Structure formats: C-alpha cells, structure tokens
Amino acid sequence: MRNKVLEKLQGTLVELNFPTDTVIIQNSKNPDHGDFSSNIAMILSGKLKQPPQKIADEIIQKLFELNSDNFFSNVEKAGPGFINFKLNKNLFHGKLLHVLKSDTEFGKSSIGKGKSANVEFVSANPTGPLTVGHGRGAMLGDTVANILEWNGYKVQREYYFNNAGRQMRVLGQSVYSRYLKTCGQDLKFDDEFYQGEYIKEIAELIFNEFGDSLMSDQNPDYFKDKAEKFIFEDIKSSLKKLGLEFDHFYNEQELYNSGKIQHILDELDSNGLIYQKDDATWFKGTQIGRDVDKVLVKKTGEPTYRLPDMAYHKTKFERGFDLCIDVFGADHIDTYPDVLAVIDQLGYDSNKVKVLIHQFVTIMKNGEQVKMSTRKANFVTLDELIDEVGADVVRYFFIMRGMSTHLNFDLDIAKDQSDNNPVFYLQYAHARMCNIINRAKGFGHTINLKADLGLLKEDEEQQLINQLLKLPELIEKCSIQLEPQLIVNFLHEFASKFHKYYAHFKVITDDKKLTDARLILIKAIQIAMRNGLTLIGINAPERM
RNA sequence: GCCCACGUAGCUCAGCUGGAUAGAGCAACGGACUUCUAAUCCGUAGGUCAGAGGUUCGAAUCCUCUCGUGGGUACCA
Questions:
Q1: Third-level CATH fold of A2-87
Q2: ipTM of the complex in this document
Q3: Model's pTM, two decimal places?
Q4: How far is the CA of A55 from the C1' of B58 (A)?
C-alpha cells in the first residue's frame, strides 16, 4: 500500500513538473498524522525556492484532482510542511480478508526465491558445554535463518568447528590427566587444563569402559576423540532444547584432508600475498589494505586459525551460495576483514558475505559480573538457563536487544521474572485472541467472510489493521537489515495495541453484525501474531 | 597508541533510510476484575538523549573532537 501511495504522489509531482527523485513516504507514528506521510514539500522547498507550505498546498490540490478512484479519503498539510495521507478504509478491509486466506503464509515474501543462503553460527569448538554467552549467537543465527526462509531463501544452517588445533589438544590432555587420577595416580592437575566437572565425567566414562588399561596409552588422540564426541552430544542436546538443529557441521579437519589448506596457500603464494619471516609464513595483509601482516603458518608448522578460515570461506563460494551470513561475537571482529580481503583477491565477490557481529553478553549473578571462561569452568551453561526459565524465554531474551548493544543478562532477574517476562506479554496476547475465537464459536459465531467490515470504526481497530498489514514489509526489510530485534519490537507494539483494545472493547456482543466484523479482525491479528512468533522461534500458545 | 562497537528516565532497553510533543518494561505511587483469562488495562512521577562544536528548513539519529565502557590489535580461537 505504501508503494501505491508513492506511485500516486510521484504521478502528481510529474503533473506539476516537480522533481520526483527524492520522494519518501513514511509510516505515520501518530494516528493523527494519517496512515502515511511525506516530507516532500520540505525537501522541494530548497530546490524550488518556495515555502514548503505553498508547495504542499499545490501538491494536495493536484492530488485531489487525480483522486477519481477515491484512493485517498483525506490528504492534509500539517506541521512544518508534512503531507499526511489517509487512505480509503475499503482498501484495508480487502487486505484483511486476504490475511485470512493466506493464513500460515501471511508475511512470507518471495524476494529470496531461487536463492540459497548459508548461515554459519555458534561454531563453538567442542571443548565444553555451551555457555550463556554462546546463546546469543545461537539465537541470532537461527532467527536470521528463519527470516531468510520466510523471504524465500533456501537456507543451510551451518556449524563450523575446529578439532585440529591447540585447544582440542589441551582438551585431550585434560581428559587423559583426569583419567590417570581416576585410575588412582596421584598427580598435579595442570592449571592450563580444562577444569570443568564434565572432564571428570568423561574420564570416568572411559575408566568404566576400559579400567586402567589405557594408562600408558601412546595414542592420546583417543581421549580427545572421546571428549569431542561426548561434548558434541551435549552441545547438540542444548541446541535442540531451543528448537535449533543444524543442517551441516563443517569440520576443519576436512580442509586439511582434502588439501584445501595447501591449495589456498599456493593460491596466495602465486598472488604474491605471502612471505617467509622468522621461520613462519606471513600473510601480506598490508598489500591489500589491511593494517598489519599476520602469521598464517607458525614456525611449528601449524597454521593459525586465519588460514583455515580463509579456506573455509572459499568453500562457501565453491558450494555456490548466493548469500553467506557469519554470526560472530565481538571477539572475532578482527578475523573477518582478512578473510574477506582474500576472498576478493581470489576473484569472488565478498559482498555476498554478511558478517553479523554481536556484542558480548555480560552475566550478572548476585549483583556481580561473572567472568566467563570455558577453561576455568566458571561459566553459566546454556542448559542451566534453559532448565531454569524455559526455551521461549531464553530465545526471547537473546533477540530482544539489538545485537550491537552489550547485553546485560542478570540471572537473578531472569529467574525472578521468569513468570513476569516480556515474552509472556506476547504469548498472552495470542492466547487471548484464540480464546475470543473459541468463545465465539461456543456462542455460535463462526468466521463470516461476508461480514460488514465497515463496522470496524474505532481508532484502535484501524491501528491494529494498519500495523498488522505492515508485517510483510517488515519481514522483507529484515532480510536486508538482518536484525531480529525489529521483529520483536514489532510484535511487542502489536501486542500492546491488542491488549489495549481488549481492555476497552468487547468482541462478542449481542450485536451480531459487529461481532462478525470484529471476529474477522481478531482472526487476522491472531494469524499475524502467531506467524510473527513462529518466525522468531517462539511458541504461540492457544491457552495460558 | 591504533582499529571496531556502544553511552537515551533510578535500573534494563526501544526510537524504523535525519522529521512533527524523545517511548516501553522493571522499580515507586494511585486506580480498574458480577462483563471474551487482571500473565491485562488506566493514571501520577521520572530526561541537559555522556559533553562540546559542525552540517540543515529540522539532529538522540549524520560529521569532528573530548570523556567513559566493552572488544580487538597473539606464531590463542
């Protein structure tokens, strides 16, 4: 509808011989300002050297001349020169019925149709349980993936992990050391080792299976592998509790096995982007606009994380994705520019990669900040949180804030508020909508598509309609902005409008015609609310 | 030092590509359930949008500087 207003306004400007390139139509925040508004008169004021008020008058007059189809029910000049548009209500009513027909499809868009997207997120190495800190990336990634799917993309959710590097080696050693202790050997447990209880658990598991027969094992990889498998099961089960399943796990080891690491080194070499210094192989980042050169292969012969990252991202292009999303925590902020620069050097288009950086989650417990470290095992696990407050609350908590803000997660409040949480505000709204429909059915009122929607005369009703019809454009916008919070804000505002309406008006009354009309409205907003909640992965209960 | 984020009510945060009187929730205070579930609604109070300049018809939003917070600047990931 916004586009239609835009067209009409542009047409009018052409008739008046005014420039049309800077036309902006905005949604009105304040209902007194109509359904849409435009600042065009103020923009043109400078160009035409005329007062905005005068320009606005001319435009409005011409608009009325061209309004033979009664598209606009009113157009007014206001404030410093805004033009406010009020649309014919019949237009909205037609759309309302369309929502009912679309049902579960309402809000979906096809702008990504035929395109494929890869969303890489979580990507935590299997050295310990997922922490609350990982939760944010997990929920952002999953929701972004949902958003892309709703826009027609074929989406692959991918988890990249590293089981070849130093961290994993230390993990294996940690388990081995615990195992020796379990076998009764008295030795000091190295401070550098992973300290968590789960290490003991794994060691005991191994002990129960093999007794002390592995004490002099010459193959420590066994301990590493066992730990990796155990921890990965734990990670997957945490994610599953949040309704999250990955389509693909990409293992760094594959990059070595398939020769892709060596291959990209050769490619960089032939592009003159690497050199040897101090027994290490360096990446000449400064040559392609980076601040400093970085080590790609240490003097031990082991690559740094940067090299496999490059090779890995190259595979994303080789696999033919039209869009690649990387969800990283702020601690990875320095790794991706090198990767993107290399991608461009290799002849790919790095614009297809969108890197979403989310700031850290600060955990507060008993009024104090908890410093998280997997190795030191002073983390709060995602599992504990889910068990405490439930999956819906966890999901909501992690996407309700903009990803660029530092999220303050007060565990005490999260627990205290678990039954007073903002997510329930949305769910309760949905439950109320469903309840109305069910109650109505009990009184013999079913949805009557021939209802006279002209009876929806209240401002509150018009506002609900206005907003619900904006869901599709919002979802499209999200596929560009990639910010789940926009959906959350929308739903919260929507629920608020509904609760307000609910408190002031009754849907089921003795007035059959009015009841029919309002039921259509309720059904439409119930569809919008349910679809919105589904989009962000939160349950839409029919009763609470 | 340099690079990237962020700084809005007592607290946690919104504020859409610059727009009309800066908004919610929590906490405080006062109201509303014989009426579709009060997990709700209504009202009161609470602000130098970190600070200073600049851009313009118009700035919380864009630019510059200062201060503060977090992150990065590893032959850790």
A1: Gyrase A; domain 2 (3.30.1360)
A2: 0.94
A3: 0.93
A4: 17
